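Quarterly update from the structural biology core.
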Amino acid sequence: MKADELNDALQHGGFAATVDHACLRLVLDTNAVLDWLLFRDQGFAPISSALASGAAVALTSEACLEELRRVLNYPEFKLDVPRQIELLQQYRRHVALVDVVDERAAPGGDASSDVIPRCKDPDDQKFLLLAAQQGAILVTKDKLLLQLARRVAKGGRFLILRPDILVQRYLTLPI
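Predicted structure, tokenized:
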């Protein structure tokens, strides 16, 4: 029953966010989402405000949502099903769901390997692919992803930034 309820939370209820190409486009990895919504990390307050105001939009994919659903069910978080559903629905209200094409499976194969490097953690590849295809900023504290930041910045398609650096560079008004 638990898995059915969580899957239902993923399948039903619309995504409130829409993609405005003029706003800041963000991809939050699963740990960033947990820091923001579950742990209420105050470092995410400016990001949350930007999302609420429409100055930024968070983007996600089916694969990223599925990972979040799975992680919320980890026993160490001690979240009951209603709380897991609440967090999933809260997240869905702030994100736009977009399609992601696995470029390795597309004709021509791995043409973007110079722009989208392989992460040492294969579970993080979906976030790199999503950010690259959407021209977004991947927001993360993950050390393996952050190790790729300079390399992807040289490619010019997307950025990888820690939340505090995102806030400093893009969400802080000049004095």
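The CA atoms of residues 30 and 68 lie 6 Å apart.
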